[in-house]
Amino acid sequence: MAALPLEELRRQQSLVALVPKTAGQLKTERERIIARLQILLNVTIAVALAGVALIAWLPFSPVPHEFRFGVQEVLGVAVFASCLFILHERAELELGLYDYEPVEQTTQGELRALLHRVPEGTSYQQALAADQRTFVTGEVDHIRRRAEAFTPKTLPADDGNAET
């Protein structure tokens, strides 16, 4: 399947209506990410310990002496690379947790102004108020993208009317 051009992808995403997630959904997603972080940390520790144990066992193994040092080096590099890869995945998940942080007060005002342009903006704000929560960082891009689809074609000052 061919990838869509970026402009076409943005156009399709801007047509999707905004539906806020409930506080319960956000909490569940955040807890799921935290659980995966813990699993990845445990896997990293297990891989590191298993690698160190295997490398320490090699001098006492029946592997010929000529190959031991080379095998130890290869195992050391493989364990190190595996641990780095797992920690990188863990760091990516930690960055994903930022999407569940509340936005700053100034950004909240900007998002409310953007939601006034969108047809479902009022219901979005009412759903947030009913859930007694504020905007979270993960919603910012979706709101901005949706509001861009509803920007006016001409501004009042650009239509030739000098009174505004």
Walk me through the structure.
The chain is 66% helix and 0% strand. Helix 2 (23-57) runs antiparallel to helix 3 (65-96). With 164 residues, the chain is mainly alpha-helical. It has helices at 6-14, 23-57, 65-96, 105-115, 121-130, 137-148. It has two domains: 22-100; 102-150, no CATH class. It is elongated, with a radius of gyration of 26 Å. The chain has six helices and no strands. The longest helix has 35 residues, at 23-57. Keywords: Membrane, Transmembrane, Transmembrane helix. The chain crosses the membrane at residues 39-57.
Key phrases:
2 domains, single chain, 164 residues, mainly alpha
How do the helices and strands line up, and which of them pair or pack?
Elements lengths: L5 H9 L8 H35 L7 H32 L8 H11 L5 H10 L6 H12 L16
> What's the order of the H and E elements?
HHHHHH
Distance between the termini: 50 Å
Radius of gyration: 26 Å
State the low-pLDDT regions, or none. none
**Shape by Cα distribution:** elongated
Q: Strand percentage, roughly?
A: under 5%
Q: What can be said about this structure in brief?
A:
The protein has 164 residues and is mainly alpha-helical. The chain has helices spanning 6-14, 23-57, 65-96, 105-115, 121-130, 137-148. It is 66% helix and 0% strand.
